[in-house]
Design a protein that fits this description.
The chain is built from 13 helices and no strands. The protein is mostly helical. The chain folds into two domains: 3-143, Ferritin; 146-299, no CATH class.
Protein backbone atom coordinates (compact mmCIF):
# COMPACT_ATOMS: atom_id res chain seq x y z
CA UNK A 1 0.00 0.00 0.00
CA UNK A 2 1.53 3.36 -0.98
CA UNK A 3 1.46 6.53 1.12
CA UNK A 4 -1.58 8.06 -0.58
CA UNK A 5 -3.61 4.88 -0.17
CA UNK A 6 -2.67 4.51 3.48
CA UNK A 7 -3.56 8.13 4.21
CA UNK A 8 -7.14 7.64 3.09
CA UNK A 9 -7.57 4.04 4.22
CA UNK A 10 -9.34 4.74 7.52
CA UNK A 11 -11.08 7.96 6.62
CA UNK A 12 -14.83 7.36 6.81
CA UNK A 13 -15.48 10.05 4.21
CA UNK A 14 -12.98 8.48 1.79
CA UNK A 15 -10.94 11.67 1.56
CA UNK A 16 -7.14 11.51 1.88
CA UNK A 17 -5.65 13.25 4.90
CA UNK A 18 -3.58 16.36 4.16
CA UNK A 19 0.16 16.09 4.74
CA UNK A 20 0.24 18.05 8.00
CA UNK A 21 -2.82 16.22 9.34
CA UNK A 22 -1.26 12.89 8.37
CA UNK A 23 1.90 13.82 10.30
CA UNK A 24 -0.18 14.73 13.38
CA UNK A 25 -2.13 11.47 13.21
CA UNK A 26 1.09 9.47 12.94
CA UNK A 27 2.61 11.43 15.86
CA UNK A 28 -0.50 10.76 17.97
CA UNK A 29 -0.30 7.08 17.13
CA UNK A 30 3.34 7.06 18.28
CA UNK A 31 2.43 8.78 21.58
CA UNK A 32 -0.27 6.22 22.30
CA UNK A 33 1.97 3.20 21.66
CA UNK A 34 4.65 4.77 23.88
CA UNK A 35 2.06 5.24 26.62
CA UNK A 36 0.82 1.68 26.24
CA UNK A 37 4.29 0.20 26.75
CA UNK A 38 5.10 2.52 29.70
CA UNK A 39 1.88 1.67 31.55
CA UNK A 40 2.18 -2.03 30.72
CA UNK A 41 5.75 -2.23 32.06
CA UNK A 42 4.75 -0.40 35.23
CA UNK A 43 1.74 -2.68 35.65
CA UNK A 44 3.93 -5.76 35.32
CA UNK A 45 6.39 -4.45 37.92
CA UNK A 46 3.77 -3.26 40.45
CA UNK A 47 3.42 -5.43 43.56
CA UNK A 48 0.18 -3.89 44.81
CA UNK A 49 -2.68 -5.61 42.98
CA UNK A 50 -4.91 -2.54 43.06
CA UNK A 51 -2.21 -0.34 41.49
CA UNK A 52 -1.44 -3.12 38.99
CA UNK A 53 -5.10 -3.13 37.94
CA UNK A 54 -5.21 0.67 37.56
CA UNK A 55 -2.08 0.74 35.40
CA UNK A 56 -3.33 -2.18 33.32
CA UNK A 57 -6.59 -0.30 32.67
CA UNK A 58 -4.70 2.81 31.53
CA UNK A 59 -2.50 0.64 29.27
CA UNK A 60 -5.64 -0.87 27.68
CA UNK A 61 -6.98 2.64 27.01
CA UNK A 62 -3.69 3.67 25.39
CA UNK A 63 -3.77 0.59 23.15
CA UNK A 64 -7.39 1.36 22.19
CA UNK A 65 -6.35 4.90 21.23
CA UNK A 66 -3.40 3.52 19.25
CA UNK A 67 -5.71 1.25 17.26
CA UNK A 68 -8.03 4.20 16.62
CA UNK A 69 -5.20 6.10 14.92
CA UNK A 70 -3.99 2.95 13.18
CA UNK A 71 -7.36 2.72 11.42
CA UNK A 72 -6.43 6.00 9.72
CA UNK A 73 -2.75 5.40 9.02
CA UNK A 74 -3.00 1.67 8.25
CA UNK A 75 0.60 1.29 9.44
CA UNK A 76 2.26 -0.24 12.50
CA UNK A 77 4.28 2.14 14.67
CA UNK A 78 7.07 1.03 17.00
CA UNK A 79 7.49 2.62 20.45
CA UNK A 80 10.49 4.75 21.41
CA UNK A 81 12.53 2.42 23.63
CA UNK A 82 14.46 5.34 25.15
CA UNK A 83 11.27 7.19 26.11
CA UNK A 84 9.68 4.03 27.54
CA UNK A 85 12.74 3.22 29.63
CA UNK A 86 13.11 6.84 30.82
CA UNK A 87 9.60 7.09 32.25
CA UNK A 88 9.74 3.54 33.58
CA UNK A 89 12.96 4.22 35.51
CA UNK A 90 11.78 7.64 36.75
CA UNK A 91 8.57 6.02 38.03
CA UNK A 92 10.47 3.24 39.77
CA UNK A 93 12.97 5.61 41.40
CA UNK A 94 10.75 8.55 42.33
CA UNK A 95 7.33 6.94 42.50
CA UNK A 96 4.66 5.95 40.00
CA UNK A 97 2.61 9.09 40.59
CA UNK A 98 5.56 11.40 39.90
CA UNK A 99 6.53 9.52 36.73
CA UNK A 100 3.00 9.48 35.32
CA UNK A 101 2.25 13.10 36.26
CA UNK A 102 5.53 14.13 34.62
CA UNK A 103 4.54 12.24 31.50
CA UNK A 104 1.07 13.80 31.47
CA UNK A 105 2.51 17.31 31.96
CA UNK A 106 4.72 16.78 28.93
CA UNK A 107 1.73 16.05 26.70
CA UNK A 108 0.46 19.63 26.33
CA UNK A 109 1.38 19.59 22.65
CA UNK A 110 -0.47 16.30 22.20
CA UNK A 111 -3.67 17.84 23.54
CA UNK A 112 -3.30 20.79 21.15
CA UNK A 113 -2.84 18.36 18.27
CA UNK A 114 -5.95 16.43 19.34
CA UNK A 115 -7.93 19.66 19.43
CA UNK A 116 -6.86 20.38 15.87
CA UNK A 117 -7.53 16.85 14.61
CA UNK A 118 -11.01 16.82 16.17
CA UNK A 119 -12.08 19.28 13.42
CA UNK A 120 -11.25 16.73 10.73
CA UNK A 121 -11.68 13.30 12.29
CA UNK A 122 -14.81 12.12 14.15
CA UNK A 123 -14.24 10.45 17.52
CA UNK A 124 -11.11 12.42 18.45
CA UNK A 125 -13.01 14.47 21.05
CA UNK A 126 -13.94 11.26 22.86
CA UNK A 127 -10.26 10.25 23.03
CA UNK A 128 -9.27 13.73 24.20
CA UNK A 129 -11.91 13.58 26.94
CA UNK A 130 -10.56 10.24 28.13
CA UNK A 131 -7.00 11.53 28.04
CA UNK A 132 -7.90 14.60 30.11
CA UNK A 133 -10.28 13.05 32.65
CA UNK A 134 -10.18 9.28 32.86
CA UNK A 135 -6.42 8.82 33.18
CA UNK A 136 -6.05 11.71 35.65
CA UNK A 137 -8.73 10.18 37.87
CA UNK A 138 -7.01 6.80 37.76
CA UNK A 139 -3.56 8.27 38.48
CA UNK A 140 -4.94 10.34 41.37
CA UNK A 141 -6.40 7.17 42.89
CA UNK A 142 -2.96 5.57 43.20
CA UNK A 143 -1.83 5.73 46.82
CA UNK A 144 1.89 5.62 47.59
CA UNK A 145 3.59 5.81 50.97
CA UNK A 146 5.85 8.67 49.89
CA UNK A 147 2.76 10.71 48.94
CA UNK A 148 0.75 9.72 52.01
CA UNK A 149 3.60 11.06 54.14
CA UNK A 150 4.65 13.95 51.91
CA UNK A 151 3.72 16.37 54.68
CA UNK A 152 6.16 14.66 57.05
CA UNK A 153 8.93 14.83 54.44
CA UNK A 154 8.21 18.52 53.81
CA UNK A 155 8.36 19.16 57.55
CA UNK A 156 11.77 17.50 57.88
CA UNK A 157 13.23 19.19 54.81
CA UNK A 158 11.86 22.64 55.55
CA UNK A 159 12.99 22.66 59.15
CA UNK A 160 16.47 21.38 58.27
CA UNK A 161 16.86 23.94 55.47
CA UNK A 162 15.60 26.89 57.49
CA UNK A 163 17.16 26.04 60.86
CA UNK A 164 20.46 24.51 59.81
CA UNK A 165 21.26 26.91 56.96
CA UNK A 166 20.83 29.74 59.45
CA UNK A 167 22.76 27.92 62.17
CA UNK A 168 25.68 27.16 59.83
CA UNK A 169 25.82 30.80 58.79
CA UNK A 170 25.94 31.85 62.44
CA UNK A 171 28.55 29.23 63.34
CA UNK A 172 30.70 30.18 60.35
CA UNK A 173 31.11 33.76 61.51
CA UNK A 174 31.29 32.96 65.20
CA UNK A 175 33.92 30.20 64.89
CA UNK A 176 35.81 30.96 61.65
CA UNK A 177 36.78 27.26 61.55
CA UNK A 178 35.14 24.87 59.07
CA UNK A 179 35.68 21.72 61.17
CA UNK A 180 34.18 23.34 64.27
CA UNK A 181 31.25 24.53 62.16
CA UNK A 182 30.77 20.98 60.84
CA UNK A 183 30.86 19.44 64.34
CA UNK A 184 28.51 22.07 65.77
CA UNK A 185 26.20 21.68 62.76
CA UNK A 186 26.19 17.88 63.03
CA UNK A 187 25.39 17.92 66.74
CA UNK A 188 22.68 20.53 66.21
CA UNK A 189 21.27 18.63 63.23
CA UNK A 190 21.12 15.23 64.94
CA UNK A 191 19.51 16.69 68.05
CA UNK A 192 17.00 18.63 65.96
CA UNK A 193 16.16 15.62 63.77
CA UNK A 194 15.39 13.48 66.83
CA UNK A 195 13.31 16.30 68.28
CA UNK A 196 11.39 16.77 65.01
CA UNK A 197 10.79 13.03 64.63
CA UNK A 198 9.45 12.80 68.19
CA UNK A 199 7.20 15.84 67.64
CA UNK A 200 5.86 14.39 64.37
CA UNK A 201 5.18 11.06 66.09
CA UNK A 202 3.12 12.72 68.84
CA UNK A 203 1.40 15.04 66.37
CA UNK A 204 0.42 12.21 64.01
CA UNK A 205 -0.74 10.05 66.91
CA UNK A 206 -3.11 12.83 67.97
CA UNK A 207 -4.55 13.04 64.46
CA UNK A 208 -7.37 10.92 63.10
CA UNK A 209 -6.11 10.77 59.53
CA UNK A 210 -5.10 7.14 59.23
CA UNK A 211 -1.34 7.79 59.02
CA UNK A 212 0.99 5.59 61.03
CA UNK A 213 2.80 7.70 63.71
CA UNK A 214 6.05 5.72 63.53
CA UNK A 215 6.20 6.00 59.71
CA UNK A 216 5.53 9.74 59.87
CA UNK A 217 8.31 10.15 62.46
CA UNK A 218 10.78 8.13 60.34
CA UNK A 219 10.03 10.12 57.17
CA UNK A 220 10.51 13.42 59.05
CA UNK A 221 13.69 12.33 60.84
CA UNK A 222 15.32 10.79 57.76
CA UNK A 223 14.48 13.82 55.58
CA UNK A 224 15.99 16.08 58.23
CA UNK A 225 19.18 13.99 58.60
CA UNK A 226 19.75 13.68 54.84
CA UNK A 227 19.44 17.44 54.45
CA UNK A 228 21.80 18.02 57.40
CA UNK A 229 24.41 15.67 55.88
CA UNK A 230 24.29 17.50 52.56
CA UNK A 231 24.61 20.94 54.14
CA UNK A 232 27.57 20.16 56.41
CA UNK A 233 29.49 18.17 53.77
CA UNK A 234 31.35 21.25 52.39
CA UNK A 235 32.62 22.10 55.89
CA UNK A 236 34.02 18.57 56.27
CA UNK A 237 35.77 18.62 52.90
CA UNK A 238 37.06 22.21 52.65
CA UNK A 239 39.12 24.40 54.95
CA UNK A 240 37.78 27.76 53.80
CA UNK A 241 34.76 28.60 55.97
CA UNK A 242 33.19 31.17 53.67
CA UNK A 243 33.54 28.96 50.58
CA UNK A 244 32.03 26.08 52.54
CA UNK A 245 29.16 28.32 53.62
CA UNK A 246 28.57 29.38 50.01
CA UNK A 247 28.48 25.75 48.88
CA UNK A 248 26.11 24.87 51.74
CA UNK A 249 23.75 27.65 50.63
CA UNK A 250 24.01 26.42 47.03
CA UNK A 251 23.23 22.87 48.21
CA UNK A 252 20.19 24.22 50.08
CA UNK A 253 18.93 25.92 46.91
CA UNK A 254 19.44 22.71 44.90
CA UNK A 255 17.52 20.68 47.50
CA UNK A 256 14.71 23.25 47.49
CA UNK A 257 14.61 23.20 43.68
CA UNK A 258 14.46 19.40 43.40
CA UNK A 259 11.94 18.82 46.15
CA UNK A 260 9.72 21.78 45.20
CA UNK A 261 9.64 20.52 41.62
CA UNK A 262 8.74 17.02 42.82
CA UNK A 263 5.88 18.27 45.02
CA UNK A 264 4.67 20.66 42.31
CA UNK A 265 4.41 17.81 39.79
CA UNK A 266 2.64 15.27 42.01
CA UNK A 267 0.32 17.85 43.60
CA UNK A 268 -0.32 19.93 40.44
CA UNK A 269 0.94 23.11 42.14
CA UNK A 270 2.72 26.22 40.85
CA UNK A 271 6.46 25.52 40.89
CA UNK A 272 7.86 29.11 40.53
CA UNK A 273 5.82 30.53 43.41
CA UNK A 274 6.62 27.70 45.84
CA UNK A 275 10.30 27.67 44.89
CA UNK A 276 10.65 31.44 45.36
CA UNK A 277 8.84 31.25 48.71
CA UNK A 278 11.06 28.49 50.10
CA UNK A 279 14.30 30.09 48.88
CA UNK A 280 13.31 33.47 50.34
CA UNK A 281 12.48 31.97 53.75
CA UNK A 282 15.58 29.74 53.95
CA UNK A 283 18.07 32.35 52.76
CA UNK A 284 16.37 35.09 54.78
CA UNK A 285 16.86 33.11 57.99
CA UNK A 286 20.44 32.31 56.95
CA UNK A 287 21.27 36.00 56.44
CA UNK A 288 19.64 36.95 59.75
CA UNK A 289 21.52 34.28 61.68
CA UNK A 290 24.70 35.21 59.82
CA UNK A 291 24.34 38.75 61.19
CA UNK A 292 23.61 37.46 64.69
CA UNK A 293 26.76 35.31 64.60
CA UNK A 294 28.80 38.29 63.45
CA UNK A 295 27.41 40.52 66.22
CA UNK A 296 28.03 37.86 68.89
CA UNK A 297 31.62 37.53 67.72
CA UNK A 298 32.17 41.32 67.75
CA UNK A 299 30.42 42.28 70.99
CA UNK A 300 31.39 39.24 73.08
CA UNK A 301 34.91 39.16 71.70
CA UNK A 302 34.80 35.44 70.90
CA UNK A 303 37.81 34.23 68.94
CA UNK A 304 38.15 30.51 68.22
Amino acid sequence: MNNEESRSGGNTEGKPLAGDIWADVLSSQKEEINGYHIYRRLSESAKDQRIKGILSQIADDELKHYNFWKNYTQVEVKPSKLRVWFYFLISRLLGITFGLKLMENGEVRTQLVYDRLSKFIPGVKDILREEENHEDQLIDSIKEDRLEYIGSIVLGLNDALVELTGALAGFAFAFQNSRLVAVAGLITGIAASLSMAASEYLSTKAEDGGRHPAKAAIYTGVAYLLTVSLLILPFLVLQETLISLGLAVLAAIVVIFIFTYYVSVVKNLSFPRRFAEMVTISLGVAVLTFLIGLLVRIFLGIEI
